Amino acid sequence: MQNTIIMSIETSCDETAVAIIKNGQEILADVVASQIATHQKFGGVVPEVASRKHLELINVVIDQALRESGLNFRDLTHYAVTYGPGLVGALLVGVSTAKALAFAAEKPLIGVNHIEGHVYANFLTNNDIQFPLVCLIVSGGHTNLVKILDHGQYEFLGATRDDAAGEAFDKIARALGLGYPGGPQIEKLAREGDPQAVELPRAWLEEGSFDFSFSGLKSAVLNYLNQCHMKNIAVNKADVAASFQEAVLDVLVEKTMLAAQESQVKTVLLAGGVAANSFLRDKLKRRTQEVGIKLYYPPIKYCTDNAAMIGAAAHYKALRGEYADLDLNAVPNLKFG
Ligand code: KG4
Ligand code: ZN
Q1: What dihedral angle (degrees, nearest 10) is formed by the CA atoms of 44, 47, 49, 52?
Q2: Residues 6 or more apart from 22 whose CB is under 8 A from it?
Q3: So what's the pLDDT on residue 288?
Q4: Which residue has the least CA distance to atom 10 on ligand 1?
Q5: Which CATH number applies to 5-119+303-319: 3.90.550.10, 3.30.420.40, 3.40.50.920, 2.40.30.20?
Q6: From CA 300, how far away is CA 302, in angstroms rounded?
Q7: Of 89, 185, 199, 305, which has the fewest Cβ atoms less than 10 A away?
Q8: What sign for the dihedral angle of Cα 236, 239, 243, 246?
Q9: Are 152 and 317 in contact (CB under 8 A)?
Q10: So what's the pLDDT on residue 45?
Q11: Do 131-265 and 5-119+303-319 have the same topology in CATH?
């Protein structure tokens, strides 16, 4: 195949994002219009508001991406879009826009799973990643451990049975009155706290399981806060944030290391919004270095939602000829695994 120059669109949650990516790695344009400020006053994402904002922003963001790249529609080889998982109304804005563009330009359409997009943030920014590898994907909606044999070839090792890792961060942040999104706030506060101060459970589940569960931990933190409140004991929020974060990261890191060892891989990838957490990055870096495993994680701006990662994933789909038809629909609970 000749060069790919893909316009990719991501509207699954609260970022309206459009990128133009050449050959899976060269970022010709990368625009992310965040709605965080709009949703902050509600303490979380309001789906209906998100869809309306996407509608308002999508054409503006597309124009900006074209301007940034210095290209026009004729130069683009493919259109890619996140078609799930995510909020249905939000996804539909991206999906219908990408379909309209592909139809009008008579160019192929590529549907990308948002979670696979997160994995590809690593390939966007590194060109020496060796297969097979194990990837830990930790986002606001998903927690997955996946073995990847080659581009597009996945073996699913485990997933969360209840809350996603990022969701747990967001819920505890809310209980501590820290605002949305919670992950970065918990991380910041945890720097001043003692991770051993509050004793909290780790859900290892059955021996050898690569699944996760964070709801027990969440309940334990909420119980602790309630008890302090009832006994009129002042809560040290920094200690709670540090202890909670440590409990989540212990399980994430331990299971990732076990998965890597059991799968006998020499490469580990970290992906998704929670991969922006520097404690997680450092902890996994130390552990992988000890056993000679190479660890990759995307730069922070490509850990959270963006369209560049969707363009990177779409490049490899284009190489395989995996195109979508123009009846592509949004699939809010699209599975990865
Ligand atoms: O991948 P993402 O942007 O959206 C989803 O696909 O869900 O992930 C957002 C999640 C939120 O739950 C947010 O609190 C969490 O990633 N997050 C973090 C950090 N930055 C974002 N969690 C922990 N530490 C961070 N620094
Ligand atoms: Zn995401």
Answers
A1: 150
A2: 3, 4, 5, 6, 28
A3: 98
A4: 140
A5: 3.30.420.40
A6: 5
A7: 199
A8: positive
A9: yes
A10: 85
A11: yes
Extents of the domains making up the chain = 5-119+303-319, 131-265
Give the residue whose CA is nearest to atom 19 of ligand 1. Answer: 183
Contact 296, 270 (CB under 8 A): yes
The residues with which 16 forms a beta bridge, in sequence order, are 33
pTM for the structure as a whole: 0.96
Closest atom of ligand 1 to 170 CA is: 14
Tokens describing residue 170:
């967001």
183 lines ligand 1 (CB under 6 A): yes
Q: What is the pLDDT of residues 69-88, one digit of tens each?
A: 999 999 999 999 999 999 99
40: pLDDT confidence band, cut at 50, 70 and 90? Answer: confident
- CATH hierarchy code of domain 131-265: 3.30.420.40
Ligand 2 center from residue 234 Cα (angstroms): 35
For residues 229-248, average pLDDT: 97
The answer to whether residues 87 and 13 touch, using CB atoms and an 8 Å cutoff, is yes
